[in-house]
Design brief:
Blueprint (H helix, E strand, L loop, with lengths): L4 E7 L5 H12 L3 E7 L4 H10 L11 H10 L8 E5 L5 H10 L3 E4 L7 H14 L3 E3 L7 H11 L6 E9 L4 H4 L2 H4 L7 H4 L4 H17 L5 E7 L10 E9 L2 E8 L8 E8 L3 E5 L2 E8 L6 E3 L8 H5 L11 H16 L12 H19 L4 E3 L2
Parallel strand pairs: 1-2, 1-3, 3-4, 4-5, 6-9
Antiparallel strand pairs: 6-10, 7-8, 7-14, 8-9, 10-11, 11-12, 12-13
Helix pairs in contact: 1-12, 4-5, 5-13, 6-10, 10-13
InterPro entries: Gfo/Idh/MocA-like_OxRdtase_N (IPR000683), Gfo/Idh/MocA_oxidoreduct (IPR051317), GFO_IDH_MocA-like_dom (IPR055170), NAD(P)-bd_dom_sf (IPR036291)
Pfam families: GFO_IDH_MocA, GFO_IDH_MocA_C3
GO molecular function: nucleotide binding
Length: 378
């Protein structure tokens, strides 16, 4: 077993959902050891949280700048190798940029930055650094999403006609209708979240899933947002028409005010020979539909699946795997890349996906503000 990779964590302290998701995922395949961190901006809470989760406190730093300064003093064989950025959106760019400039590998939460210009600057920094950069579009780690990608690549659907992706949540619905409450949520604050809430937070996952599974890129889009209240600056619901080409089109539907919805990410891809349907809340079932044959159901862990799918399956067939395992598959791919091992290019989203995501977010905002017009993506 190779020596564990030294992992640093920025953010994700306390009761952060994303924090526990990344910590558990990093441990699942026994590739990483949390070596240092800045979990919280308050140093006392930072130390207390490290003690609570049994991380040694000698490399728990008071702030990010101290983290960089102290780690760079250490010999390379002791220094943290890769750092996970789990902070609110507005901190992703400055932290990732400084990490890359100092030679660290980076695992970053999405959206990668708050603007497309920042994303391009980060891309240049990454090219100069020559290190590994992974963006945690978690759902690309599910075995059946990977199976869908490999089957589409092998021609299972033939020519693709239409794509329908949606991501429905309802968590903002109880908040948005109270003026005092909606002013306290950082995802509704453009200074912290960026220019978009719904498309920037969840719509971009649907966008990424489309490009990841089909291998196609969205060329242009038309977007219509709903803000619900005049004083709310951030979209909480939206519909996006997409064009991959003149004859391949589709729709992305996103909502954070879909009352009663939990984490309803789903995608349907229709081709000339067959179609696929997958839903995140039932991730172990990939449906292949046809006009001439009964519907087929693919499930993880079976020998009929692709190597990429099986590599991301940890348990025998019939044992449910979920979001922690999906994120763990991304961490596994990053570990292979850091160690210079062979890996499939679908094992983790890259800087390219981060730039594409920011391009998508800005294009949706531009389309809506322009009067619901078609906008070309770069």
């Amino acid at each position: 077993m190779p020596k564990k990779i030294r992992l640093g964590i920025l953010g994700g302290g306390g009761d952060s959902l994303i924090g526990v998701l990344h910590r558990v995922a990093s441990h699942i395949n026994d590739n990483y050891q949390i070596t240092g961190a800045v979990f919280n901006p308050d140093f006392k809470e930072n130390i207390g949280f490290a003690e609570e989760i049994d991380v040694p406190t000698n490399r728990i730093y008071k702030d990010f700048d101290t983290f960089i300064e102290e780690e760079m003093k250490l010999p390379k064989e002791e220094r943290i190798q890769v750092c996970s950025v789990l902070t609110p959106n507005f901190l992703h760019f400055p932290m990732a940029k400084k990490l890359l400039d100092n030679g660290f590998h980076v695992i970053c939460e999405k959206p990668m930055t708050t603007t497309l210009d920042e994303a391009k600057i980060l891309q240049e920094a990454h090219q100069k650094a020559g290190t590994i950069f992974a963006l945690t579009h978690t759902y690309t780690g599910y075995p059946m999403v990977r199976q869908m990608r490999e089957m589409i690549k092998a021609g299972a659907l033939g020519k693709i006609h239409k794509i329908d992706a949606r991501y429905y949540q309802g968590w903002i619905n109880p908040i948005i209708h109270d003026k005092a409450q909606r002013s306290t949520v950082w995802r509704l604050d453009p200074k912290k979240a960026g220019i978009s809430s719904c498309m920037g937070d969840i719509g971009v996952h649907a966008f990424n899933l489309i490009e990841y599974t089909t291998g196609l890129e969205i060329k242009s889009l038309l977007c219509d947002f709903n803000y619900l209240y005049e004083d709310n600056q951030m979209d909480v619901d939206g519909t996006v028409l997409i064009r991959m080409s003149d004859y391949v089109k589709g729709v992305i539907r996103g909502s954070q005010v879909a009352t009663g919805e939990e984490n309803g990410l789903a995608i349907s891809i229709y081709g000339e020979k067959a179609a696929f349907r997958w839903e995140q809340e039932r991730p172990n079932f990939l449906y292949k539909m046809s006009d001439t044959e009964p519907t087929q159901i693919y499930k993880p862990g079976h020998a009929y699946n692709s190597e990429l799918s099986l590599d991301g399956t940890k348990l025998p067939a019939g044992h449910p795997e979920g979001i922690f395992d999906s994120m763990a598959n991304i961490y596994l791919g990053v570990a292979k890349a850091i160690r210079g091992e062979a890996y499939n290019d679908g094992e983790y989203p890259t800087m390219h996906d981060g730039v594409r995501g920011m391009n998508f977010i800005e294009a949706t905002v531009a389309s809506h503000k322009g009067g619901n017009v078609w906008v070309d993506m770069e």
